[in-house]
Specification:
EC number: 4.4.1.2
Strand order of the largest sheet: 1-7-6-5-4-2-3
GO biological process, one term: cysteine biosynthetic process via cystathionine
Catalytic activity: L-methionine + H2O = methanethiol + 2-oxobutanoate + NH4(+); L-homocysteine + H2O = 2-oxobutanoate + hydrogen sulfide + NH4(+) + H(+)
Enzyme class: lyase
CATH architecture of the largest domain: 3-Layer(aba) Sandwich
Strand content: 5-15%
Shape: globular
Number of helices: 15
Distance between the termini: 64 Å
Number of strands: 12
Order of helices and strands: HHHEHEHEHEHEHEEHHHEHEHEEHEH
Largest sheet: 7 strands, mixed
Oligomer: single chain
Protein name: homocysteine desulfhydrase
CATH superfamily of the largest domain: Type I PLP-dependent aspartate aminotransferase-like (Major domain)
Amino acid sequence: MTDSHPSELRPETRTVHVPQPVIEGSRPITMPIYQTSGFTFDDPAVMADAMGRADGPFVYGRYTNPTVRSLEEAVSGLEGGVGAIATGSGMGAINTVLLGLLKPGDHLIAQKSLYGGTAAMINDLVGRFGITVTYVPENDPAALRAAVRPETRLVYLETISNPMTLVADLPGMCAAARELGILSVVDNTFATALLCRPIEHGADIVVHSTTKYLSGHTDVVGGLAVFASTELYEKVWHFAIELGASADPFAAWLSLRGLQTLALRMERHCSNARLLATRLASHPAVTAVHWPGLATHPSHELAGKLLSDFGGVLSFDLAGGREAGEKFMSSVRLMLLAPSLGGVETLVLHPATTSHRSLNAEELARTGIGEGTVRIAVGIEHPEDLWADVAQALA
């Protein structure tokens, strides 16, 4: 530790201005938590410059922070981006991008099957800001081209949709968007950069809920937006610091800690999902299973080309409708009835009344969600223990 303060300072002052460590000749193995709201400068000109630059010196926690930037750079590197903005939640990342790029009167194209929070946000944009939206299939570039208007600004996709696990034709949809001069935004939360890297398929922006697989331990809420171009990154960054949806250093540190085991966890998530999906597909109480690794899934062929594995989330439809779904969820013993996904434990929910509760009957039908649809976010437990729980709940 170093102490640059003169000894004549009074104790009340010295307790505020504590000595700071100077590390020479070594570095920490893990990124420390920089739990500070701001940073001090010796040169006023350097401080002024820092407040206007996305890549400048650290100045204020709402802009970024060493721990937060470490997470931004780590995920940006995984996704093949030039920069990233960490936010306080996944919806914070989505809102930062949409609000930062859209203005009243603009037109948005979105895929039909979307996460409920995203769909609710789009409805809010329509109602309050006069933004119009056209929904198209996630795998139909021709429909995208037909939907484009002079005021169209971007297309919004999900690599693997929530909860119906439809896989977007990223090469085709992003190429069509670029050809037409509109931006493509892809939510890659379900796949992560380990299963798919949307920027390599033409995406301009990739968003994540780091709450899910990236942190992986159900103990943090966060989000990230990754950018393919510096110009776009800097444009949205300036809006982001005004919006104030910034990530907290401790939350960023938790996400960094989880990121280190992502590859190991994703392998188990996917293999467990494969076992459950395969066995559910032959169960008499189940009318359909939605997991792109099954040959019967409408996205199976595309998923085989686009993804390195098929993900850890599946949904299935029960013959008895909502009553059967509610009975199943109240009967599980090992799996937990809870929102979210991507943690080490297996979570189950009823999308129509939880994650997609803001959608009306018509909107639910558009996304493919039925009254008896149940979603399982598969954890890393032993697969036979998970199946035993599913089987007894179905029985």
